[in-house]
Write a structure and sequence with these properties.
2 copies of one chain form a homodimer. Helix content of chain A is 77%, strand content 2%. Chain A has 521 residues and is mostly helical. In chain A, the strands form 2 sheets. Chain A has a two-stranded antiparallel ribbon. In chain A, strands 3-4 form a two-stranded antiparallel ribbon. In chain A, helix 11 (196-221) packs antiparallel against helix 12. The longest helix of chain A is centred in the N-terminal third of the chain and has 36 residues, at 84-119.
Chain lengths: 521, 521
């Protein structure tokens, strides 16, 4: 009785999750439940829960923390009399570097978190609380990092950083030990496997590697500080670099290594699967924070003081608000650009069936550039018209948009290399939506590149060109499907002039579809 | 061929969603797919997508915007020589009121958004872009609101607000018209219904009511400003209030009204279903932002200047950082409290099977108090020890924690009133986890209340009591299950002394289980 009872709660939660997915899955959830609950689930234990929401909350926290260091960059006051070039160089050397490094390190911690919860698929109260403790330490990492950057010769920053990493390692080990002592919390693959102990030791070994090296680095820092930074950098990125190199070599030579059973998890291979769900949740968080960064500032700083309005503007609120005009423009511009980049990301991941570690890395790079967008947009409106500073700010914005977009395109290109595993047939090479997806992904990089070169040539009209770009792009996305069809029809008209059918635009869709289906099925 | 093709992409996405839910659903997704795709889905159309991620992104944006106005409150500098009472009263009258009103209005907009996307369950590119435009207008609402609060006698604030609402109304109407022109995007219930036109008109009528009234309010504001504020307040909250009153009356009299077919959506009834998924996503967003609010400030403001460290602290970074000690404490305290409140929320919603509008409202109140937590915690550490200010800051923190917790408890109590629809059997009255859930939900309110009264009596040790509370609560959550069992065993020992079995604690679980199962099944 008790056992059946327990499996009931699990079934209930699974059902609930499926119900979330809308009405379509109702039939599935009601008809096939008994089969979907594995014997190990049936054993059940009171208080186990799906980890879905815990991971969503963790992703939200981590995405905020990853982007937090852009705030000091954005709030650096630009002096009007100073040349932008110099101040940007000053920023580049410290604050932007801190931002990018923080972003990278937090995403490394995030990747470790994903890896851990790909092994542990169910949680209970104790694991949820341990995970919260882990999260708190992750949120503290950016601060230790900015201490390191501000006081590079002081021990404290590196000791705090190593301390955080070590405590996180201990907590993660406790989580692993706890989960392995309650196997019903684990991934099914490990649950049914016979050498659970082997898995446990392998995972613990991988998890403890970084904290142990951090301990050495912190001891080492007492003797020779500079080298311990190098040690840290190696510790954190070595597994990725070495495995990537190994993977590249094996690809180049063509020799496919047989991965042993133990290497299913924690392989650090570029094609190790990465939970697509979590990549999306993390990206959504970053896009949402970045899109609203400027409105946070506007809400806080750009409400004029009633006394000032009375004295300086003769009580005219509109006149007082006109001073802030550029900031509103920057907000709308950055919101629209970030929103559309999210839209492209959304369209791409809709057709991704499996995310890999390498795709996750490219996604991280894209997001890191997205984080810089509000700052760049703010700069474009801060300087007097036709000044050298304005031109440079506009060009920097174009460069940032270009890289944010090109890394999104790169995700797709990488996915295409292994398209049968990672992509839906429709966007594979030759698929029905292939050209349309290419157009979507290429739109922003192309436009940014075009604007960049146009502003180089017509530097006098740079602001006008930039604003025109901002306004045109959303409409371009709206009519993109049409544009692609017209473009394809024109191409066909030029290269296959033997069949100049005027209805080809309409038939286009059906024409391109047939051969690809043959390929796919 | 073309039609089959299209249904394939839909099937693929459904499958993908289920795969996300982990390995357990594999069997379900592979075995029962053909049944789960409805005839209308089979018709299919190129480019339709599940709305899941669009809604997640919208929720993330809205949760950030809802909490944005706490920043001006948090950044108000407290003067040490000034009495806290006065400065708090000053805050209460303006900034806190703006924060609470913003929170309420944004959540009203969010509820409208939920309602809309409970009718439209699939999206395409065009709808995604229209939704982004709608989001941008929502993110602008807090600013118009703070303009209204700062310049209550100026027209501009109210005109901007009404303008935003009107444009949002137009966009939402366009979305509805667009979706009804492509019925495969709609909720299945409407899709199969014969009077789609009736639905369309009903929904449009409800959507356009608020923008139309806003138009009147803005015209009215040109004549008599103060009354147009009242008009606005009525417009926004009237449907909720009137329907709630109607519902309460019908509950009191016991007369159950038959809701006509048209009233399935957009009823404003307190028991109208609210997407549980989205309530969770929105809450996660708010908890995540609030938990990290203080670290954002710390990362930006609390990195000391190297020159200052050299001059004032003789190069000792540790001495310089000790100045910020209270801020770190406040950060850890608020992170832990927010994290644990999230944990309680998570545990509760794990057992909620259907969320209603009234539960959503209570959740909003709880979240609004959670948003004030970092500010309160910051205050507790900002004043000298044993000052009157410190005592009041601690008591305010207790009050905020109390209300945040008590509204969570209220969600459960409301759910219990209709437990067969809204709750999992385990946490219903008499269910196995009923007492444990009660303990979880009651822990924070009780502790906050206890701390409040203790600090009233032992005002000299208020700081110590508060810190002790901060440290004890996480451990209390860890051993709560044990505590509840011991408590139950003790109660049984006292009230049923005829069976003083020493093993009762161990058997407790089985003993309590049996009678409830009889109830449940």
């Amino acid at each position: 009785m008790g056992e059946n009872d327990d499996s009931e709660i699990i079934e209930h939660h699974v059902e609930e999750e499926m119900e979330k997915k809308g009405t379509r899955s109702h039939a599935a959830s009601s008809s096939s439940f008994p089969e979907s609950v594995t014997p190990s689930d049936r054993e059940g234990h009171s208080g186990t829960q799906s980890s879905h929401r815990l991971l969503a909350y963790s992703d939200a926290l981590i995405s905020i923390i990853a982007t937090v260091m852009i705030l000091p960059v954005a709030h650096t006051k630009m002096e009007d009399n100073e040349e932008l070039r110099e101040s940007v160089q000053l920023l580049l050397t410290t604050k932007i570097a801190v931002y990018l490094m923080t972003f990278l390190i937090v995403t490394v911690a995030w990747a470790a978190h994903i890896r851990l919860f790909q092994v542990i698929v169910r949680i209970d109260d104790c694991l949820a609380l341990l995970n919260l403790a882990c999260m708190m330490l992750i949120t503290f990492l950016p601060y230790t990092f900015s201490l390191m950057a501000t006081f590079p010769t002081n021990l404290l920053g590196i000791l705090l950083f190593c301390g955080c990493v070590m405590v996180m390692g201990v907590i993660q080990s406790v989580i692993v030990l706890y989960a392995f002592s309650r196997p019903f919390l684990l991934n099914e693959q490990i649950q049914i496997s016979e050498n659970q102990t082997f898995y446990k030791h392998h995972i613990l070994k991988v998890i403890m590697r970084v904290p142990l090296m951090c301990m050495f680095a912190s001891i080492f820092s007492l003797i020779f500080l500079q080298l311990s930074y190098v040690l840290l950098a190696i510790v954190i990125f070595l597994p990725y670099i070495s495995q990537s190199l190994k993977w590249c070599r094996s690809k180049a030579i063509g020799q496919v290594e047989e991965t042993p059973d133990s290497m299913l998890f924690y392989t650090y291979l570029p094609n190790e699967p990465l939970s697509k769900d979590r990549v999306e949740a993390f990206s959504d968080g970053v896009y949402a924070i970045v899109a609203t960064l400027l409105i946070l500032d506007i809400c806080e700083d750009n409400v004029p003081d009633p006394i000032v309005v009375q004295k300086q503007f003769g009580g005219s609120l509109i006149a007082a608000l006109q001073v802030y005009g550029p900031e509103y423009l920057a907000y709308f511009g950055s919101f629209v650009t970030v929103g559309l980049l999210w839209f492209v990301h959304h369209s791409l991941f809709l057709h991704v069936t499996k995310a890999t570690r390498f795709m996750g890395l490219l996604n991280t790079f894209s997001l890191a550039f997205v984080g810089g967008l509000p700052l760049a947009y703010q700069l474009t409106h801060e300087f007097p018209h036709n000044s050298r500073n304005e031109l440079e700010a506009i060009q920097i914005s174009c460069v940032i948009i270009f890289f944010a977009g090109i890394f999104q395109l790169a995700i797709w290109v990488v996915a295409l290399y292994n398209e049968h595993e990672t992509l839906h047939p429709y966007v594979r090479y030759g698929g029905r939506e292939h050209v349309f997806m290419l157009a979507k992904l290429a739109l922003y990089p192309c436009v940014a590149l075009g604007t960049f070169f146009l502003t180089c040539i017509l530097s006098k009209f740079s602001a006008q060109i930039f604003h025109l770009m901002e306004i045109t792009v959303p409409f371009a996305f709206l009519v993109l499907r049409l544009l692609v069809r017209v473009g394809l029809a024109l191409l066909r008209l030029i290269f296959c002039p033997d069949r100049p059918d005027p209805r080809s635009i309409v038939e286009e869709e059906d024409e391109t579809r047939v051969p690809f289906n043959a390929l796919v099925t």
